[in-house]
Amino acid sequence: MTLARAAGLALLCAFGASARADALYQAPVPGSYELPAIARVRAHALVDSNGATASFPALAKGQVALVAFVYRGCHEAQGCPASLALLRQLDRKLETDPARAARVRLACVSFDPANDTPERMRELREMMAPKTDWAFLAPGSPDALATLLGDYGQDATPLENGSYRHVLKVFLVDDQLRVRNVYSAGLLDPELVIADIDTVTQP
After folding, report:
1. Which phi and psi (to 5°) does residue 45 adopt?
2. At what angle do helices 80-95 and 118-128 cross, to 10 degrees?
3. What would the pLDDT profile of 178-197 be if each residue is shown by its tens digit?
């Protein structure tokens, strides 16, 4: 394991432990509440970690996607590492429940495709070591990036130092490409997300 990979995993584990310690509420009972559609998004053609074109989010009937917009150069603990930590926790929880896992697709989508090449996204995939359906993607061109970010309402402003100003957002998208929830820094609780998944995907 490289030093960078070890440091990245340590940061993710530390954030995950902190998030569990800071949980101040009990997740609601699935199906006891509703999640009305917030917005509707479109299908997009992105590039996967093998360099191939991939349809996104490409959901089957009854599936949902958890979509986190990230970039590899982010070092803010409450930024992209927090999104990655949430998806990693969800991945491990889904692994223990194959029936639920079949209804969920996880996706990390880079908004820095100039630096987050397929090779870099493949390194991230190896670092996360996914156990379930978890894609690592990036737009193939600046125009595709602008269209994608505009569609989801995800801000990502490049700064002179090579970093980005952005608000952490993780999107829950249903099989009709409707956004059903958006998780920000105060809502990165895997139990809440699991309850939302079950609420949206229940018959």
Report:
1. -95, 115
2. 50
3. 999 999 988 899 999 999 99
Question: What b/e sequence results for 68-98 when a residue is b if at least 16 CB atoms lie within 10 Å of its CB, and e otherwise?
Answer: bbbbbebeeeebbbbbbbbbbbbbebbeeee
- Cis-peptide into 57, omega within 30 deg: yes
Tell me, yes or no, if the pTM score tops 0.70.
Answer: yes
**How many Cβ atoms sit within 10 Å of the Cβ of residue 107?**
23
Write the CA distances from 115 to 72, 85, 119, 142, integer angstroms: 8, 21, 10, 12
d(Cα 42, Cα 121) in Å, to the nearest integer?
A: 23
